[in-house]
Amino acid sequence: NGPNEFRVTETLKTWSVIDQLHNINVSTLVLNGYYDEAQDGTVQPFFKNIPKCKWVQFANSSHTPQWEGTASYLDIVGNLLA
Hints:
Blueprint: E1 28-33, H1 40-49, E2 53-58, H2 65-68, H3 70-81
Parallel strand pairs: 1-2
């Protein structure tokens, strides 16, 4: 829906799921990196509206903490799944 991920057009331009997030009733992990294109302002509504949500920001990562901080990433995800 648009020429690239930064220029959204048509039906996805106004689409949002934020008002439905309160319906998620399982433990949820929201991740982003300090250098991520998904900055805190993008992630914050998910953290705020999902009842059982944990938010982790990887200090030395962009959008791929599973590759940029593998040990820490696996530890965090493993703890959620344990």
